[in-house]
Specification:
- The complex is a heterotrimer of chains A (336), B (304) and C (443).
- Chain A has 336 residues and is mainly alpha-helical.
- Chain A contains 15 helices and 3 strands.
- Chain A has a domain of 122 residues.
- Chain A has a two-stranded antiparallel sheet.
- In chain B, strands 1-5 form a two-stranded antiparallel ribbon.
- Chain B starts with a helix and ends in a 13-residue tail after the last helix.
- The chains are: A mainly alpha (336), B alpha+beta (304), C alpha/beta (443).
Chain lengths: 336, 304, 443
Amino acid sequence: MNKFITVAPSPHIHSGKSVERLMYGVILALIPALVVSVFFYGIGAIAVTFISIVSCVLFELLIQKFILKTQVRISDGSALVTGMLLAFNLPSNLPWWIIIIGALVSIGIGKMTFGGLGNNPFNPALVGRVFLLLSFPVQMTSYPVPKGLSTPYISNIEGFTGPTPLGILKEGIKQGTPVSDLMKELPSYLDLFLGKLGGSMGEIAGAALILGLIFLLIRKIITWHIPVSIILSVYVFTGILHLTDPSQYADPLFHILTGGILLGAIFMATDYVTSPMTSPGMLVYGIGIGVITVLIRVFGAYPEGVSFAILIMNGFVPLINRYIKPRRFGEEVKNG
Amino acid sequence: MSMVILYTIISLSGLGTTAAIVLYFVAQKFKVKEDPRIDDVEGALPGANCGGCGFPGCRNFAEACVKSDDFEGLYCPVGGNDTMSAVAAILGRDAVEQDPRVAVLRCNGSCDARPRTNNYDGTATCAIASALYGGDTDCQYGCLGFGDCVEVCNFNALAMDFTSGLPVVNDINCTACGACVKACPKDLFELRKRAKKDRKIYVACRNEDKGGIAKKSCSVACIGCSKCFNVCPFEAITMNNNLAFIDADKCKLCRKCVLECPTNSIIEIGFPPRKEKVESTEKSNENEESKDTNSGEIIKNKEE
Amino acid sequence: MLKTFTIGGIHPSENKLTGHEHIVNLPVPDAVTIPLSMHLGVPAKAVVEKGETIRTGQLIAKGNGFVSSHIHSSVSGKVLKIDKAIDASGYKHDSIFIQVEGDEWDETIDRSDELNHRCSLSQKDIIQKINAAGIVGMGGATFPSHVKLSLPRGKKARFLIINGVECEPFLTSDHALMLEKGEELMVGISILGKALNAEKTLVGIENNKPDAIENLKKIAGKYKNISIHALKVKYPQGGEKQLIQALIHREVPSGGLPVDVGTVVFNVGTAYAVYEAVQKNKPLFERIVTVTGKSLKKPSNFRVRIGTAVNELIEAAGGMPQDTGKIINGGPMMGKALSSTFVPVTKGTSGILILNDREARRKAVEPCIRCAKCVSVCPMGMEPYLLMALSEKQMFERLESDRVMDCIECGSCSYICPANRPLLDYIRLGKSSVGKIIRTRKK
């Protein structure tokens, strides 16, 4: 026991919030989606998640200890979260060595080269994911067929791997098939919501992800601004397009439930380090992501655009922080 | 295949040359015309950009020198008289000279002399601790020991001695630029004229409390007894607010005050040990052992 | 829907351990040390000498300038000396040392308990009496009240706002006052309203004190133009600007004063002191202090004579606990940690809080994770992470243009930071540096 009185500047109490608790809260919020993906993809899902998490944490430990020679901070849980989110962006049948490369790029390049936690401008999991997508396009876009799926489009595919509903949509539109015909072959909305579709592990279960969102909001780990602005802007933009030509553009609900919109809006874009610091800034950020995503999906070469959209908007975040300021108290001079 | 390579080489070289020529002419057109002497003067300066002259960098000091008529208020403490005469030669003026100075820490309240009375748990910088209260000892005037001065020194002339809890000045490296004077929230650093062989005699205390209170909080505090003031043959010592101060310009380094001081508050540095009475030898030996910094030996180097 | 302020805010645990403790008179101590500066502005000048015999309530120091305050003795006895003594700031300042002998009060003071609710003094005379009684803001700011009441030319106060919020955790001195001295408090409030010629008076109380709200609502019924408002429990509702926004929906402009939006704010303790001064001729020399802490044996609300040493209060509350870590003058969010308990209680001491070892220690600082929680809780809508970074790098021009001087130092940012970053430490440093620059610029 200290025999001296302690003196320090105010405040003398603390909320008890810590980085670990925030990170473990995010992990808890991801558990429902993990359960769904294990249910549909089996052992592959567990393997990919495990390899991703272990390699991310290991790389952070090795880099901090031997290369940077700073304090080892793996216990704060941020590498674990990066590992999980990276896994959720990968197909569950990805070879193990590709996952390890992805982890190295995520942690080594996406996070550590900038100075560790708090200093990276781009979302590390997305940096890894996009790197893998560009380097190993075939392996990254062949998703295994989930168990129990019984819609017509499966019978069109040979073997055990296949594209996502968005991929099918894009191909179909390129070939001139009207959207309404394509929709009959794709899973129903309920199936999409519950996860019965091909895709990367985290994309598939809309319901599970929304559960995670509610948990994060209740625990005050994130605020509503980014998820709501992304989802709403995607909805509105695709809605406008759909209204102008329903045969060319799918309806907004389809867009929200497929691809990584929900995963991106709830878990990837809300990463603390790479998102804006002010509420109005977050809304601008979210709208930007939504618009760019739809542009890439509809007019671009890729069927899916959330990862790129988030990375592009990450680049704008310092500008948003500099010029979009929060509402100040006493800004306007009121008449007394 | 080789034609392709040839065409590539030709076209890229052509592009590069064109760009170089365009850039050259643009650079010439938009060139800022500056007095060429500014570059010359800047070349003669040490280039430390430490701010000791009062200007934000060596180039600004060079500009100021060139633009003004004389050297009024312009002196580079780091370069000293050699640099100023070089600058004067470039500008065709008479050189100015100033006595070289060195920084001195007017506090000897080490962990042994000045016991801690509470535990500080705030941010470990002197600026923040000083804004909060008088420090974790009973002397509100003394060194806080968090090393803001060490952080700010550009010349590696300050290092924290962790046994005593006080910073130590390296006389060889010190250029008297004044950064530590500005950084110390307790105003403990004094820039004083260097004496021969870098000898110093100064009152290592700034405690203005009455004698009894000062002595209770630190065993080597100045208690304002005025014995040194009475014994100084050169009137170099002044008493103010229970505190003695030795004027370096008047002091002739006779060391009479060091012997008189009852609390060993006056420090002497750079002197050979005395051979007189036993008590005084012990006293001055004590002082010299604990304060022999003139050899330049740094006890713990500031991390680069 | 309870009224509240709209930007930022946090919800620390209330810990109102003494919420139901009756006010207990702390016995008069053997000696008191009264600092000559217990208020904002110029320190007072002593008008007594060593060896003089004085009585409780006697004037012992005169205010020295417009923004200054008179000081009255809280005890009767002999002046020991006028010398420097360490006070709550940790630095030594001039104080009057008095050796207590008995408890003889000045004859002009009315010591009866009878409620005196008639006041026929003019506005000017009320302000004069408040000045003579040495009344300062008792919420902690200690701004001389007569100066606050002397509105600048051309400014009018439509509203008088009384701050009964007490948003700091642990503190209950205002709560006890509102419960036990409600009638007197209301008279004091109406006197203040008269002094300002205000149209309406609003009293704001946080909703965690329902008994006080009910008690005051009942009493306010007898007065016209005084209304009691329950406010949502959120820190820092008791901050002047936040309280004004919650009650009259106006925001004091940056760099401005409440009078710029037509209102003046006073703490309930100050209003009670005004009653005693104007109606009972009793100058300010004692106040209610909450002595609290989870390890204390008898946390209480004491009525204490100014100048009593803090350690006497702790003794009366059951003695210093073994596991004491910090001793705080004030509340846990904005109070000042004491380096010694031999410091006196002053006009602005609202509470003494003992935090144990575990509660007192700060956790290790980690790098900023840019979670923006500090931005979301700042009641002034600022960006604490940015202000800390600018302050560390000493970029004072940008600090000033980012209006660091608007910071009310409430501590919400440091409280919420998951990385335990000392945001408020650096912001305060930035404020003092920028303040120095502004002052030298004005000269």
